[in-house]
Design a protein that fits this description.
By secondary structure, the protein is α/β, with parallel strands linked by helices. 52% of the residues lie in helices and 13% in strands. The protein has an eight-stranded mixed sheet, sandwiched between helices.
Length: 294
Amino acid sequence: MNLSSIAILMPGDMGHGVGRALREHGFEVITALSERSDRTRSLASAAGIRDVGTLANAVNQAGLILSILPPASALDLARDTADAMRKTDRTPVFVDCNAVSPQTVSEVSKVMDEANAPFIDAGIIGLAPGKAGGTRFYVSGRDVAPMLALNGMGFSVIAIGDEPGRASSLKMTYAGLTKGTWTLQTAVLLAARQLGVLPELLEEFQISQSHALEIMKARVPSLPADSGRWIGEMEEIAATFAEAGVTSGFHDGAAEVFRVLAQTPFASETRETMNKDRTLEEALKTFCEYLRKP
């Protein structure tokens, strides 16, 4: 299978970083930016990703398609891509790299099976390639060789089984801890401020939870920029936990925290434009204005 041309759908925060890494390792990277935002176009251009216009053109030219976009759009993109496959009579490998539940992966897999297209389930852990910490693609499926061929191309690829859904199960449980912890921290701080004990709580955290407090100061003020797309991820995690017989309540609550943050004016920021000087106290003051009144 010819993997010299790879389509990234879509080149957002993670996607354009993956596309840049692949380009730096000699691959042609394309995308389809018809009806996409100016920011997505700007990120694609900065990464050197070539816009071929339509989804049908991307399917016609790519040997491998990486679906990387907000989880709420994952199934719709799979369906649109399958339609484009039928129209072009081409079936490149389709890799769902989104933060979705195993149940959603099963639906995506069925869509690709109906289009006679090879399918790989992938879960991305870590920041985008080029940022600190490294990027890992965990993959599962009947034939994950096309993804394993990309191991070391700016990120690691790790196979964890033949069954689609295993990679996404790992992603869901991992993000259940990371993003779930950030929302729990935010909820605790909001409650303390509403109850009038925030200064005292922060003083106690400085004594007994200093490491956690530093993480909160660094992370919580920036959460609104990602809150809109992380609502869907929390809902996918909640569904994953429920299917496993574990309470969905933690991550239903996490989704609710992100809904509050998504209403704030800070939610219009991007990772390029966010105010990195905003303090934790300043952020919480604004967040509280958007809490539902009892």
